[in-house]
Amino acid sequence: MNAPPLIRLQDVTVEIQGRTLIENVTFDINPGEIITVIGPNGAGKSTLAKALLGIQTLSRGEVLRRPGLKIGYMPQRFHIDASLPLTVKRFLQLAHNPQRWREALQRVEMEHVAKQPMHTLSGGELQRVLLARALQRAPDLLVLDEPAQGVDVTGQAELYRLIRSLRDELHCGALLVSHDLHLVMASTDQVLCLNRHICCAGHPEKVSNEPAFINLFGTQAARSLAVYHHHHDHHHHADGTVAAGSECSHGGHHV
């Protein structure tokens, strides 16, 4: 018997001041499943994530959550004032389950920045610390809004590898919001192509051949995309550099 979905959106519509941000969105997120929402700017991706979290009022439809569902959220934008003397350790101790701060940092391979001021972190380090904060709740579901923003391409691939590893280890579901087609397509189980409504959905290779996808992103994107493989026989540091004694090979498979 299949486990019930972690969360189910049914005909979710959000309208603000007469403008429709998302319309009639329906899908499930299941345990152990990574779903990535892609779409152009203004497509409603962040609105969808906020609706799922319950921080965006719905105009119509409903969001059904499994009883006792724990969600870890990583926001799209996070700014720490340089004048605020806040270390990584203290930042995590202010979050849910503060006693889990060390374990969370270990999971994202960031123990070495515990005493470092938040405002001195690189883009890749900050994103991993924010991911650690989301993990402190021991979540059943991770909601990650543009988790790789501010991270270079090599660091992005390593971050998506980490997200897949966490999914496997914790058997949690994950919803990713992203505009980065190539790396995300290799890192996800299902893709939702959103442009206020769901234009197409399914396995990455299937979606890349959908007319709706091609209309939004172009023929070249579809040709170059279908599944982009980042082959790892190496390990990256948090700043994206390759660890000594390892090599990096990239390859692509085109449909």
Give an account of the 3D structure:
By secondary structure, the protein is α/β, with parallel strands linked by helices. It has 2 domains: 176 residues, P-loop containing nucleotide triphosphate hydrolases (Rossmann fold, 3-Layer(aba) Sandwich); 64 residues, no CATH class. The protein has 9 helices and 11 strands. The strands form 3 sheets. It has a 6-stranded mixed beta sheet with strand order 5-6-7-3-8-9, with helices on both faces. Strands 2-1-4 form a 3-stranded antiparallel beta sheet, covered by helices on one side. A hairpin with a 2-residue loop joins strand 1 and strand 2. Helix 3 packs across helix 4 and helix 8 packs across helix 9. The longest helix is centred in the middle third of the chain and has 18 residues. The C terminus is likely disordered.
Key terms for this structure?
single chain; 255 residues; alpha/beta; Rossmann fold; six-stranded mixed β-sheet; three-stranded antiparallel β-sheet; 9 helices
Offer a concise description of the structure.
This protein is of the alpha/beta class. The chain has helices spanning 45-53, 88-93, 101-107, 123-135, 153-170, 181-185, 204-208, 211-217, 219-225; strands spanning 7-16, 19-29, 34-38, 60-65, 71-74, 141-145, 173-177, 190-195, 197-202, 227-233, 247-253. It starts with 6 loop residues before the first strand and ends with a strand.
